[in-house]
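Appendix B. Chain record.
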Amino acid sequence: LEREVQVRKQAEARELGLKNHLQSIFDSMCCVLVVVDTGGMITFANAEAESMCGMSLQQLKGRPLHTVSGIYGISGDELLARLRNNGEQWRTQRFELELGERRIHLDITSYPFSVGDDAGFVLRIDDVTRHVTLEQELFKAEKLKAIGLLAGGIAHDFNNLLAVILGNVNLMQHDGRLSDATARYLAVVEQAVSNAKKLTRELLTFSQGGDPRKKLVDVGELVRKGIDCGTEGAVVACRFSPSLNLWPVEVDAEQIELVISKMVANAAQAVNERGTIDITCTNVDADDQYPQAQLPPGRYVAITIADNGPGMPSELLSRVFDPYFSTKGEGRGLGLAICSSIIGKHRGLLTVDSKPEQGTIFSIYLPAAPGALLPQQSSANTGKGLGSPLRVLVMDDDSMIRDIVKAMLSLLGHQVTVTPDGGEAILRYRQEMDSGAPPDVVLMDLVVAHGMGGKDAVREILALDPGAKVVVCSGYSDDPILADPLRFGFVGALAKPYDFKDLQRIIAEVVS
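Structure tokens predicted for this chain:
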């Protein structure tokens, strides 16, 4: 009898040890784990479930499944009915729910069991919101990349055509024999080309060549310019409230101004002249607990654009930044996708929050540079160094661009030599050096269809003459050279299409 008692105690000790071991395993799981009997009453819960419900295991035992599922807004009876009708051993169901102000995604995995007199279901509840969000962002990035390949190629060829059109318009405008009517027509063409330049600039943000040309800027001033551009021609009340002592941000001012103008214009269309738009700028110190899952820890300047328009239903929110998606009857549906692409390239974040009849809030987070000093405004004369004609070497594989740039520079009084590729440009540079009169400035196309491009040619020219002043020119490239020309040996960058003023400015900067 004593031996049987001892054996029974040992068995009970082993059973208790196994139960404690299993309890420790279940408690260490980062998911809600509950067991219910066939009547839907809780018989077991792990530590995560206890924490979620604010009850101990003893308090949860004997309570209905709704005690746990109801926290997520899921009916316990409905969930139990699904479990009973499900004949599979393991089955995971995805739930998309509103939990307070958050939209969450849950995976609920169920497993029916029957051991002796005990039967019921094991339920595992995983919050996969972050996973789903990242998955959506990855899918969106892949779509943007595919569009970028197409957009970048179109923009490159389109910018070359615009360069020829704009150059010829500028040359005609300098013809003293023009009538007033013809001058007005040319001004209209010039404005149309300017609008086309903006379009290609937007297309380039989808391409890998649309890298930002960053510099430290006052974000408040940048937002003001974007607001002025976005509300041009609109009758809408727009209130801007920047916080004091905003941190500087290192951004491409032109691209961020484009984002602000598009977001404000979008809000103005939403309120339809009868509402208001509130814009704020604040410093944000994000940490691991910050509610935006995609925002890494760090310091940011947050720009919010809120309107009191009709808002959007939840099913549209996940699509507002998709290419070609638009809630309006007109438009190409690229505006918000372009904004998302630009902010992403600045390592920032663009989010949206909206509900029907409660308006829409867009939030932009840009990495900040606290303590950095903003550069002083330059008062240099852009005409400095242009008192005498310069020797300019132009390399471009497009014959029409070579001809028009030569004509424009000649009209400015400079002596111009043109070449179709980098190899011939190096040869001409060496010849002019040997004659004792090397070029003062070299304008070099970055990518040529046949022969050596600007990236390789500039190294050869600098080997001949370390003091050579070479400017890179391009309508598009998948290389970061345009964003950081100094790093690759160039002294400046000139984006196509460019006009007389652009040529005068870049040459003045290089010479001075």
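Further analysis of this model is presented in Appendix C.
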